[in-house]
Amino acid sequence: MHIAVLGASRNTGRYFVKQALEKNADIQITILARNPDNLPFTSEELSKITVVKGDALVKQDIARTIEGVDIILCSLGAKPQGLGKMSDEGIEEVGVKSIVEIIKETRAGNMPRLIMVSSTGVGTNSDVPYVMRPFYSLFLRKPLQHKQVAEKAIKNSGITYTIVRPALLTSGELTKKYRADVVCSGYTISRRDVAHFVLEQCVIENKWPNSSLSIAY
After folding, report:
1. Cα–Cα distance between 155 and 159 in angstroms, integer?
2. Cα separations (Å) of 10 from 31, 162, 170, 188?
3. Which 8-state DSSP code applies to residue 204?
4. Are 39 and 55 in contact (CB under 8 A)?
5. pLDDT recorded at residue 84
6. Which residue range or ranges hold the NAD(P)-binding domain (predicted)?
């Protein structure tokens, strides 16, 4: 099984790659990185990863990364740069649109599965606890708008997909104890547990095809 990961240099994508390598299963990993020298992986881990130097904002770089893979994990997202400021705002929207275009142009007869790490609160607030809704509206409005555009592009693409919407992400430990369903409201979830869910259920067990679901504690 060959998996391409966009957004592997930090957060959920990083933990997905580490957990996939720890499984010691028949999994081949290719990642896209702007700065391969700064990747958060050990030398041993890097020896098992194919690294493509490039930018997720550049369609040609994504094309080189996803060529011939079975699964694409898109874990792209803006990076906080202080109160109310973000770098790479809208990167998930641009990246997903490029992925869809590339697949349709080059792999119409052999489409990979596309898994996107999105967020609760996209399109609806039914999976956001009532007391958290003002926070989402005030501070996450723009990122959620970009994720919504990306989700829509995926759903309209004809590609087999899974959209995973985590609650507010934390740097907590891996617990393997979480809830995931089409409607699942909760306050937080650790990035490690989101990565575990994606790897174990979406990839290895091949669950949740053409589904959008929320995950939380």
Report:
1. 8
2. 12, 21, 13, 18
3. I
4. no
5. 58
6. 7-201
